[in-house]
Amino acid sequence: MKLHALRLQPGDDLHLALEEFTQKSGISAGFIAGAVGSLLRARLRFSDAGVPNLVGGPLEILSLSGTLSPDGAHLHLSAANARGGVLGGYVMSGCIIHTTAEVVIGEATALSFRREPDAKTGYRELVVSPRPD
Predict the structure, then answer these.
(1) Beta-carbon count within 10 A of 22 CB
(2) What CA–CA distance (Å, rounded) separates 133 from 32?
(3) CA 95, CA 11: separation in Å to the nearest integer?
(4) Alpha helix (H) ranges present in 1-133?
(5) Cβ-based neighbour number of residue 17 at 10 Å
(6) What pLDDT band is residue 9 in, cutting at 50, 70 and 90?
(7) Residue 45: alpha-carbon gap to chain centroid
(8) In a 10 Å sphere around its CB, with 0-12 CB exposed, 13-18 middle and 19+ buried, how is residue 61 labelled?
(9) How far apart are the C-alpha atoms of 126 and 116, rounded to whole Å?
């Protein structure tokens, strides 16, 4: 296993920045090990919702989890508003960093992740295989 860390800046898009970092770093099987920070706003898809929801901020990132592959990221977020109300969902592009986001990414160096269409779910789902070296 290998660890990577990065700090995102105000105005960065959380989803896009993590996908870009995955590509630039050559990560073939990544996962979110930890994250803290804040969002100006979040764009989340709630469970079984067909469309994303725009959630105004500022919001504190309480947790970020997910997998990272060359085919894209699958991320879930929980965040709190100024009154301590918490919500979460599937991270879409449009989650904009407010002050900072500090993200630690784990890389499973013996594995390879990819996303392929799944007839049962209708989504591109994770396929795990040994890393060809």
Answers:
(1) 24
(2) 24
(3) 9
(4) 14-25
(5) 19
(6) very high
(7) 13
(8) buried
(9) 7
Question: Residue 63 is inside which H or E element, if any?
Answer: strand 53-69
Q: What does pLDDT average to over the chain?
A: 96
**Among residues 32, 89, 31, 17, which one has the least CA distance to residue 59?**
89
State phi, psi for 52 to the nearest 5 degrees: -75, 160
Written as six digits, the tokens of 17 are: 């920045």
Burial of 29 per CB tally in 10 Å (0-12, 13-18, 19+): buried
Distance (Å, whole) CA 82 – CA 125: 35
Which residue has 């994303």 as its token pair?
52
pLDDT band for 96, please (50, 70, 90 cuts).
Answer: very high
Question: What is the rounded distance in angstroms from the CA atom of residue 15 to the CA atom of residue 73?
Answer: 7
- Residue 52 contacts residue 45 (beta carbons within 8 Å): yes
pLDDT digits (tens, 9 = 90+) for 20-68: 999 999 999 999 999 999 999 999 999 888 899 999 999 999 999 999 9
Q: Does domain 2-114 have CATH number 3.30.1330.80?
A: yes
